[in-house]
DNA sequence: GTCTATAGGGGGATAGAC
DNA sequence: GTCTATCCCCCTATAGAC
């Protein structure tokens, strides 16, 4: 599942195969099918695990008790680390791009994952604005969608234009919020 | 080429085949190969044409003579129309997601396309701030990267969460700039 | 649980007739 | 310029031995 997750973030769901995983693990193709009968089930399991991990993180006091500004920095750091890790992109962004050729169950998981990311980010933004540390107009939900979409897009853009573009975007978000 | 362009925006470069195009045109697979010997050449031609089209647009007085605010609205409208057209995503965004499995020539084209979009947007933002109609901190280049990455990401996000999310993002960008 | 072997499909690409 | 026919590769998935 670690390998599958990495491969989705590096090559996309349609871009990885049982053979890739089997080769890396030095087992045969059929061995993977024993644990995950279909690729669809493997894909679902990967996204579910990713969602569970995010929920564990945000419910842990180490994140929960952070200030709004620190919470945002923590969220940004997820994407910075993703970029640093072999130029991966956000799992949600990768799946959304391939959405039209995804099995129904993966679409549902993708939708759920994206919603959960948005929901948390929206709450953090609202908390920060209420506390007077963030400044932005409009709805927190819209600002959350703007920031999340930008982080997803910036990871992709960095593949074509380099990591510095990604850092520029993160810096700009902070400048906008603290203006 | 129209079909190929649409297919890249709907299913990605790896997600479309000669058979898709041939079937739609009611010709055989081999007929396409006569005009575009390899898929790589077809892909390159599609991106080049897209780049040329954008250059024609921005050098036309109908865009060149717009006010900064109208220029931005025009740019946003490109993405709004893309979303409305079968839920397509930005060509650049689609290719960036598949960047790791793209032939070298397509990577170069993708990089060039993204740079050109960024360059134009940066100039429009700078013009607007200098004229006092846009308000933002930091470098125009960084703000341009933020907006472009967000538009790309929002088109993808809209596939999972619906068109309204995309419109929220566009509205929020305007609110942020005119704050 | 992992293996060998294989089925069955789709993909890109080419040769040669018309 | 388009056709038929074909090649070869990679993919997901399964059957049955071990």
Number of helical stretches of at least 4 residues of chain A: 10
Structural class of chain A: mainly alpha
How many domain units of chain A?
1
Distance between the termini of chain A: 42 Å
Features:
10 helices; elongated; homodimer; Tetracycline Repressor, domain 2; mainly alpha
Characterise this structure:
- The structure is a homodimer of 179-residue chains.
- Chain A has 179 residues and is mostly helical.
- Chain A has one domain (50-178): Tetracycline Repressor, domain 2.
- Helices cover 78% and strands 0% of the residues of chain A.
- In chain A, helix 6 (68-84) runs antiparallel to helix 8.
- The first copy, chain A, starts with a helix and ends with a helix.
- The mean pLDDT of chain A is 98.
- At the A-B interface, helix 7, helix 8, helix 9 and helix 10 of A face helix 7, helix 8, helix 9 and helix 10 of B.
Write the layout of secondary structure elements.
The structure is a homodimer of 179-residue chains.
Chain A: H1 2-11, H2 18-25, H3 29-35, H4 39-59, H5 61-64, H6 68-84, H7 91-97, H8 104-130, H9 140-161, H10 163-178
Helix pairs in contact in A: 2-3, 4-8, 6-8, 6-9, 6-10, 8-9, 9-10
The first copy, chain A, binds a DNA duplex (18 and 18 nucleotides) through residues 17-19, 27-31, 33-35, 37-39.
Quick structural gist:
With 179 residues, the first copy, chain A, is mainly alpha-helical. Chain A has helices at residues 2-11, 18-25, 29-35, 39-59, 61-64, 68-84, 91-97, 104-130, 140-161, 163-178. Chain A has a single domain, classed as Tetracycline Repressor, domain 2 (Orthogonal Bundle), CATH 1.10.357.10.
């Amino acid at each position: 599942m670690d390998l599958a997750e990495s491969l989705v973030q590096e090559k996309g769901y349609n871009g990885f195969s049982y053979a890739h995983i089997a080769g890396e693990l030095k087992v045969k193709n059929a061995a993977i099918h024993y644990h995950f009968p279909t690729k669809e089930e493997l894909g679902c399991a990967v996204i579910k695990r990713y969602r569970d991990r995010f929920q564990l993180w945000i419910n842990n006091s180490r994140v929960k008790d952070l200030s709004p500004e620190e919470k945002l920095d923590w969220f940004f750091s997820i994407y910075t680390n993703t970029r640093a890790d072999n130029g991966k992109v956000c799992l949600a962004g990768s799946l959304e791009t391939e959405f039209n050729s995804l099995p129904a169950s993966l679409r549902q998981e993708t939708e759920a994952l994206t919603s959960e990311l948005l929901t948390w980010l929206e709450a953090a933004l609202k908390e920060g604005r209420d506390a007077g540390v963030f400044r932005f107009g409009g709805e927190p939900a819209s600002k959350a969608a703007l920031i999340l979409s930008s982080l997803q897009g910036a990871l992709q853009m960095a593949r074509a234009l380099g990591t510095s573009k990604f850092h520029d975007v993160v810096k700009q978000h902070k400048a906008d919020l603290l203006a």
